[in-house]
Amino acid sequence: MPAHRHIVPARAASGQLTVSESELVEWGEHLGRSSSPPLLVTITGELGAGKTTLAKAICRGYGVGEDVTSPTYSIVQQYSSERSTVYHVDLYRLESSDQLTNIGWDELISAHALVLVEWPERAGARLPQNHLPIDLSYVPDDPSRRILLAG
To answer: Do 43 and 120 touch, CB atoms closer than 8 A?
Structure first.
């Protein structure tokens, strides 16, 4: 299933929609500090676009004190914060949305928690409409910057 992508404004690469990695981390930490549970955040982007980097920054801003790692192989990582549990989910390895049941999807997305989902397009119709979508794209001809679209 193809990813839902935002329409990228024509001049995004030369405007304020582009961020360096350090700006992406700063933005993610700010989002984490300002977030309250329950919140489902979906992060879409190509391989290497910065999805896990952003998820780590959101967790740090949210108050997760432990080292946040990519859940590519475990699919779900659980962390603790004083505010709530944090679930970091990577659906990249799922072949169909039917496999969501095996990871406790319905419980995850209904928990009083911060839930960060990479590769949300793999959830298909089981992805709730009430979530904060974030899309990361490469800036053409500038590998050091990303286009960041949220909301």
So the answer is: yes
Question: What b/e readout covers 110-147, taking b as 16+ CB neighbours within 10 angstroms?
Answer: ebebbbbbbbbbbbeeebeeeeebbbbbbbeeeeebbb
Residues 6+ apart with CB under 8 A from 29: 57, 58, 60, 61
Query: Which region holds residue 11: left if phi is over 0, alpha if psi is between -120 and 50, else beta?
Result: alpha
How does the average pLDDT of the chain come out, rounded? Answer: 89
Average pLDDT estimate for 127-151: 89
Q: Which fold has domain 13-145?
A: Rossmann fold (3.40.50)
Mean pLDDT score, 105-119: 96
Are 134 and 5 in contact by the 8 Å Cβ rule? The answer is no
